[in-house]
Design brief:
The protein is an all-beta fold and 79 residues long. The chain has one domain. Helix content is 0%, strand content 53%. The protein contains no helices and 6 strands. The strands form 2 sheets. Strands 3-4-5-6 form a 4-stranded antiparallel β-sheet, with no helix packed on it. A two-stranded antiparallel sheet has the order 1-2.
């Protein structure tokens, strides 16, 4: 499993959020807001669409991830 770090610059501070590609996405663990739709195949279940979300963890660190709505696994981290 590959890990991706997303660097975010907020208020001149450097914050990092680490999300694993292939990790099961649980909206209850993350504060998530819909960002965009991707017309690409899921890396894990071959679903034809992936949904992008802006996410925030319990410490306030933020990032963007692409999640398959069928198997609910993280397919990518993007900017």
């Amino acid at each position: 499993m590959r890990k991706a770090d997303l660097h975010v610059d907020q208020h001149q501070e450097h914050l990092y959020i680490t999300i694993s590609v292939g990790e099961e996405f649980k909206g209850i663990d993350w504060k998530a807001q819909h960002d965009m739709e991707f017309n690409t195949e899921c890396l894990f279940c071959s679903s034809e669409n992936i949904t992008g979300y802006r996410v925030e963890d319990e410490t306030g660190r933020t990032g963007k991830i692409a999640v398959c709505p069928t198997c609910e696994k993280v397919n990518a981290v993007y900017i």
